[in-house]
Amino acid sequence: MTTTQTAGVIPTAKSGAATGSGAGGQQRSGGVGGTTTVGSGATGASEPAATRGRTSIADTVVVKIAGMAAREIPGVYDMGGGLSRTIGAVRDRVPGGRPNVGRGVKVEVGERQTAIDLDLVVEYGVAITDVAHDVRENVIAAVERTTGLEVVEVNVTVNDVHLPEDDAEAAPAETRVA
Fold first, then answer.
1. Dist. CA 31–CA 103, nearest whole Å
2. What gap in Å lies between CA 29 and CA 109, rounded to an integer?
3. pLDDT-derived band at 174, boundaries 50, 70, 90
């Protein structure tokens, strides 16, 4: 599942080009599989060294960049839906397990554009619209700066609000034996 572009043939992207799957080389990834070629290079000794060859970016790279950028924003407690967070919490507790930075992130990547969907859990007391705005700005800046892809949209869904008393309930109970 690879999207590539050849030198001299670059499709014109329209505002909805990052969605769907079709002849334009667009693909829906959902954060799994696939790569996108963002730089088609020329071949031959007469070409500058920096332009010889192609650059391909796997869809999971975009997922991880967007996930990390979203988590940097104050007020974002966690990411993902209820079931995904539950499974992630179990995986995080397993020795040797590591957190999944792509949890709660879905992407659609085309040849030159990407669209990103984020599922967030925010802290109680923060202004959700402000957090969503800050998340959008940070994700767009990080993905465009790092990959060179144009981010056409970042859709934010707030699935839950983390309450301070949720931490108190999750605290381990006192054991009766020493």
1. 9
2. 7
3. low
pTM for the model stands at 0.67
Alpha-carbon gap, residue 73 to 76, rounded angstroms: 6
Rounded distance between C-alpha atoms, residue 121 and residue 156, angstroms: 10
Measured CA angle at 170 (ends 166, 175), to 5 deg: 145
Instruction: Give the angle subtended at the CA of 3 by the CAs of 37 and 141, to the nearest 5°.
Output: 50
Q: How many residues does the chain have?
A: 178
Structure tokens belonging to residue 83: 């079931």
Tokens standing for 162?
Answer: 């983390």
Per the CB < 8 A criterion, the answer to whether 121 and 159 are in contact is yes
> Rounded to an integer, what distance in angstroms lies between the CA atom of residue 30 and that of residue 162?
26
